[in-house]
Amino acid sequence: MRHRAWGAAAAATLVVLGGCFGTRPVPAGRSLVVFAAASLGTALGAVETAFRADHPDVTFTTSTSSSAAAATQIEHGAPADVFLSADVANAQRLMDEGLAGGQAVMVATNRLVVIAPATNPAGITSPADLARPGLKVIAAGDEVPITEYASRVVDNLAELPGYPADFAAGYRSNVVSREESVSGVLTKVSLGEGDAGIVYATDAAAAAGEVLRLEIPEAANVLARYAGVTLASSTAPTLAAQFLAWLAGPDGQRVLSTRGFGPPS
């Protein structure tokens, strides 16, 4: 599968929409199929409930997986109206292939944290321990957005005072498993099948009590940017665009903020 770097030219095609579709009534009996990043899974129920408060005749069908896997399903013809990605690259990928129904919309941001099992058998006290010899790190596959974000965090940590020069190499040599999504990382760590992992802050918050959360220094952390697109094959393109604009607007942002997501950037 291809991986496209996110550059200035692609950035120019993205816009943040905040209600520019107005408040047109939605015809009765309309439905939306939403493919979303796994890290949005815990928020989608609240998002749907809030949207349906003003649009009670809309029904949702949602599917969550890694952003790359969801994009691949769409490429292979899976029927969907909206795609919500944990990065910009996968949304841009669908735009480049003519599968998106319009411009991408920035809908949220997130930060990364280190997690360990709640019992913390390895005695992890800081992100520096990720490179400790013999530590078992659970990570995601190369195509999963969290992997690129985590790689940048690790490289940034290696530049901080007090971190050894071989920190990045030590971390990568400790990776013992590659999961299909960030949810897989969270599950394996929470079950004690690994000593640590790097996940989104929202995932760690949703698993409070199941995992120990360790903050990443601000100087080393990165901003995960979530982008959404409507799909050219949508059977409800107007409704799909209206939902995406709502999600990026004040009402949608209030819901996402209660689940720990930051505003679009």
Could you please describe the fold and organization of this structure?
The chain is of the alpha/beta class and 265 residues long. It folds into two domains: 13-109 and 223-258, Periplasmic binding protein-like II (D-Maltodextrin-Binding Protein, domain 2), CATH 3.40.190; 112-215, Periplasmic binding protein-like II (D-Maltodextrin-Binding Protein, domain 2), CATH 3.40.190. It has helices at 8-11, 41-54, 67-75, 89-96, 145-158, 167-174, 182-190, 201-206, 237-248, 250-258; strands at residues 31-37, 59-65, 82-85, 105-110, 112-117, 137-140, 175-179, 196-200, 211-215, 224-230. A five-stranded mixed beta sheet has the order 2-1-3-10-4, sandwiched between helices. A five-stranded mixed beta sheet has the order 7-6-8-5-9. Strand 1, helix 2 (41-54) and strand 2 form a beta-alpha-beta unit. It is elongated. The model is unreliable at 1-28 (pLDDT under 50).
